[in-house]
Amino acid sequence: MGQQKTAPENGTRESERRRTILRAAIDVFARKGYHGCRIADVAKEAGVAYGLVYHYFKNKDELLETVFETGWSGFIARARAVAESEGPLVEKVRRIADVAFEAYRVDPRAVKVLILEIARSPAGARINRQTAFVDVIRLSAQMFTRAKEAGELRPDVDPLLASALLFGSIEMGLTAFVVGLADARDTVMLERAKAQIADSFLHGVLLSGASSKAEPAKLELPQGEEPQAAAPLKREKAAPKARTPKRG
Questions:
Q1: φ and ψ at residue 110, rounded to 5 degrees
Q2: Helices marked H in the chain — which ranges?
Q3: Would you tell me how many other CB atoms lie within 10 Å of the CB of residue 140?
Q4: 162 contacts 153 by C-beta, under 8 angstroms
Q5: Which of 21, 123, 165, 230 could anchor a disulfide with 64, C-beta 3.0 to 4.6 Å?
Q6: Which residues share a beta bridge with 153?
Q7: Do the beta carbons of residue 169 and residue 200 sit within 8 Å?
Q8: pLDDT tens for each residue of 171-213
Q9: What does the alpha-carbon distance between residue 128 and residue 140 come to, in Å, rounded to a whole number?
Q10: Which of 37-46, 120-129, 210-219 is predicted with the least confidence, judged by mean pLDDT?
Q11: How many CB atoms lie within 10 A of CB 103?
Q12: Is 170 helix (H, G, I), strand (E, B) or coil?
C-alpha cells in the first residue's frame, strides 16, 4: 500500500498550486486586461483543470485582489526596510526608487497589473487602495521627518507632501514604461529613469549643497558599447558681405 501523505506535504502542494494559479492570473491580466480575462484563460495558462481555479479563488475579482495584496505587501516590506534603516536621506530615496524599478525589472507584468488593471477593474473598488497608499506615504513621511530634524531637509518642506510627491513620481515614471512610452527592455533607460526621478526629487527638497554629498548615479552600458561624446558644434561661416557697386 502507498504511504498516505502527511498534512505538511498536502499543505505544501496546496500552496504551490495556489501560487501557480496566481502567477498565471498575473500573466493573463497583463496580456488581456481585467475585462478580457476569463477563468478558463487562467486555468489554461496554469495548466490546471478549470474547476481547480474555483477551489482556490471564487472568481476573477478575488484573483485580482490577491494579486494586489501579494504584490503590494512585498513592496511595502522592502520600502519599510529602507525607510527605517540608518543612513542619509539621499541614500534612502535612491534605494526606495531602486526597490520600485527593480520590482519592474524582475516582474514587469505584475507591476503592470498593479498600476493599470487594479484601477480599471470593478474589483479595484473593493480593494482598499486608499489604506494601502496611506500606509506607505505615512511610513515615508516619518523618514522625511527624521531627515528634517537632522537638518537634511529644507525647513519649508512638509514631510507628508514630500512623501506623496516621491511615490507619485515613482508611479508615473513606471507608468511610462508600462504603457510603452519608454522601452522596458532598455536597461540603460530604466537606470536613467530611476536616477532622474531620485535626482529631480532630491534637488527640490534638500538643503542647498546637501545633494553634493551623494554619489552620482552610474549608468551601465551594455557590454561592448562605449559612451559616445557629443558631436562638437560647428560654427557657420559668415556670409560674405555684398560689395557696393561703384558709381560712375
A1: -65, -40
A2: 7-36, 39-46, 50-56, 60-83, 89-106, 108-112, 118-120, 123-126, 129-149, 159-178, 187-205
A3: 24
A4: yes
A5: 123
A6: 206
A7: yes
A8: 999 999 999 888 888 889 999 999 999 999 999 888 765 543 4
A9: 19
A10: 210-219
A11: 18
A12: helix
**Secondary structure class of 61 (helix, strand, coil):** helix
pTM of the predicted protein model: 0.73
Residue 30 has pLDDT above 80, yes or no: yes
Give residue-wise pLDDT tens across range 163-173: 999 999 999 99
The answer to whether 64 and 118 are in contact (CB under 8 A) is yes
- Residue 85 parent element (H or E): none
Name residue 56's amino acid.
Y
Classify burial at 150, counting beta carbons within 10 Å of its beta carbon; exposed 0-12, middle 13-18, buried 19 or more: exposed
Residue among 42, 50, 35, 5 nearest 20 (CA)? 42
Q: Which residue has the cell 510627491?
A: 165
| Whole-number Å distance between alpha carbons of 210 and 202 | 9
